[in-house]
Amino acid sequence: MKQSVSLVTLGVSDYARAKAFYEAIGWSPAMDVEETAFFQANGVVLVLWSRAKLAADMGIADDGARWGGVALAHNVASDDEVDRVVETARANGAEIAREPAPTFYGGYAGAFRDPDGHVWEVAHNPGFGLADDGSVVLPTAAPSEAPRPGG
Fold first, then answer.
1. φ, ψ for residue 79 (rounded to 5)?
2. Taken in order 9, 15, 17, 21, is the CA torsion positive or negative?
3. In the sheet where 37-41 sits, what is the strand order?
4. For the chain, what is the largest distance between any 2 Cα atoms, rounded to a whole number of angstroms?
5. Tens digit of each residue's pLDDT, the chain (151 residues)
6. Can you tell me the distance from the alpha carbon of 52 to that of 32, in angstroms, rounded to the nearest whole number?
7. Beta 136-137 vs 31-32: how paired, if at all?
């Protein structure tokens, strides 16, 4: 299987509220069809869809848990930008899970929950590059120090 992620679908309890929240923090849907919003995001599509419909479509019971062990991340170019994004989310009804602060890896990050409880980390990681489209560029690994055959 090819290593890729093409869509991330967030199950939402109130479609209109969820869509309004994402629009208020600066996202614009590329498509909006039958109460399903599709946001183009650097080669990945973020989708908002009814939580009940998503659970039925995936064949799972929806127990209403607020934490599913998944966090989405939005990397930015500076600490100031982390602060701006978190403040915009707060002003539009997000619950701040972690105030922006220095991280253990030498970066700066904060986290919020959208109106349906989906967790977003907003981070500036000086060890990652950012392409012009905002996608993360991972550093290249150092060549192995293993000895070469015959040498």
1. -60, -40
2. positive
3. 7-12, 44-50, 37-41, 31-32
4. 66
5. 777 788 999 999 999 999 999 999 999 999 999 999 999 998 899 999 999 999 998 888 888 787 787 899 999 999 999 999 999 999 999 999 999 999 998 999 999 999 999 999 999 999 999 888 888 888 886 545 444 445 4
6. 18
7. unpaired
